[in-house]
Amino acid sequence: MEKFTKEELEKFKKLLLEKKVKIERELERFAKKDPKLGGDYDTNFPDFGSHQSIDEGALEVADYESSLSLEHNLELQLKDIDEALERIENGTYGRCQQDGCDDFIKKERLEVLPEAKYCMKCLPNTAKHINQ
Length: 132
Description:
mainly alpha, Four Helix Bundle (Hemerythrin (Met), subunit A), two-stranded antiparallel sheet, about 50% helix, globular
């Protein structure tokens, strides 16, 4: 069982906030924040001009689809980061979020993935373990 000191929690909070800024900057390169939905971004449709060939039109669509997928993944990462920041505030940061598990997530794991939700024992049992 690992307990976190106030200094360690501040370090994790700083890591999370830095990661959040980096992801938001990446999203802003190709999407704009939706003012109606907190944490949601809308991917900008690329515009290569109105005088384009079929190939250029297809490239626009392919670029847009790629950006949509990236937008979705980055939004999920932001959600996980926001949830981790909430856990720091409410005193549950570092505890495994799997139902029935009360273990702490190892500090070494949190240093690499500060938004991690699950301990390594529970990770294989979670349906959403890809970025956790």
